Each structure stands twice: as structure tokens, then as C-alpha cells.
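Changelog note: in this version the structure field was regenerated for every chain. One regenerated record is shown below for reference.
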Amino acid sequence: MPVVFERTRGLTEKEFHFCPGCTHGVIHRLVAEVLEEMNELGNTVGVAPVGCSVLSYQYFNCDMHEAAHGRAPAMATGIKRVLPDRMVFAYQGDGDLASIGTAEIIHAAGRGEKITVIFVNNAIYGMTGGQMAPTTLAGQRTTTSPLGRDPRQVGFPLRVSEMLATIDGAAFIERTSVHDPAHIRKTKKAIRNAFECQKANQGFSMVEILSTCPTNWGMSPLESLDWVKETMMPYYPLGNFRRPEAVTVSGASGGGHA
């Protein structure tokens, strides 16, 4: 019989620890498939910091390093500078990247470090108990904002992609989602483009991916997918915010931003 599906070699056979309905597993698979299709698995070093990504070293079938909370871009910078022929990526959540790791991500982009960042935005601290994150939406209830986030007291949610797109060292910045099959396909294209950008030595690249957290949102998996579409996407619009001018990156999903 013809083979219609093969498990990607980019993932180990270790069972994911993620909660039911969490889309971290989908994103893991997309990253793994892209690295396998680019024939880069044996040439890749990934960096996972604290957060729901903390056990990624058990899942990705490539060299992995563990970083302190928020410091994945700094560690990835060191690895890439010592081993410039390697494909180096950081896999970070929003509580990690947009809070304690804000300085690291901004300055890595500012220096134009030739690394790729997979930024998973689920608008909450997932692993530590569902606290308010820098990306938590106005009015969103969390364990530390039980009445809903009040921008008058704690400020507004950070739009990281828009912020990094203003930095000259950033070569490729795109925001995608994995709330349905069509957007999952677009996310895979964006991840491929980000790695191609690194391979071409174009500069810093990042894909921000809107993801679910049913457990801490207090929703069913299906409800959480709808919440991404109906509540997150209006505040975090999808699209490409920056891409290299010198090289046409194939399969970019676009979205009205340049």
C-alpha cells in the first residue's frame, strides 16, 4: 500500500507533556518538519528556556540547550557566533520572551544576530499557574488579574512583532496562528522562511505564533481555538511585518503588513 503519512524524524518518540488542546505540540511538529525537509536536523542547535517549552530538549531530535528564564536569545547568540555554520533557534513563550527576556530579544534583533526565534504567544503564563503576562489582553482574567487586566494600572499588552519590526537588525518578522488547518499551513511556511533567512545570513528572524492555553483560560480545547480567532487576532493581527528586500522568501503568507 502507498505510504500516505510518515512521522517526522525531527521529533523523538517521547510523549508530549502538554495539556489537552494546547497547540505547543502542533508548533513543535511544524518546526521539526521544516528542519527535516531542509535537511538541517544534524546541523541544528535549539535553545529552550523556562516555561511550557522547558522540556523541549526531550522532543526535538536535534542538539538542544537549556537556558535560564528569558535568556534563550543570549545563549543562541553565543552558540551561533561560536558555530556560525549551525542552524540555531530559540523556542520561547510570551511570559518568557516578552517579560524577563525583553532586553535579550530586543538587543539580539538590534545586533542582527543570525538566529531564528519561535515565539509562542498564548497571552498568559502557562506553566506557572496562569498569571497575567505582558501579552495578556485588556479585560482578560488571569490568576493575578481576577477582575480582568486593567491597562490604567498595569499598561497595555505588548505587540512584540510590531515592536521588533522597527529594528534594522530584524530581517524577517511574521505573526501567524495555529487555530485551524489553513493557518497551520501558513505557519509552517513562515517557519521555513525564517530558517531560510538565517541560512542566507540575512539577520535576525522571528515567527510569532498565536497559540492556545485551554487550562489556564478555563476553556475547552474547541472554545480556545475560537478565542484565538475572535479575541486574540483582532488585537494581534496576522501578517508579515518585515522581510528581506534582497531575497524573495518563498511562500510568505503576507497579510497587509510590510
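Spot check on this record: Residues 181-199 form the longest helix (19 residues). The domain at 24-242 is CATH 3.40.50.970 (Rossmann fold).
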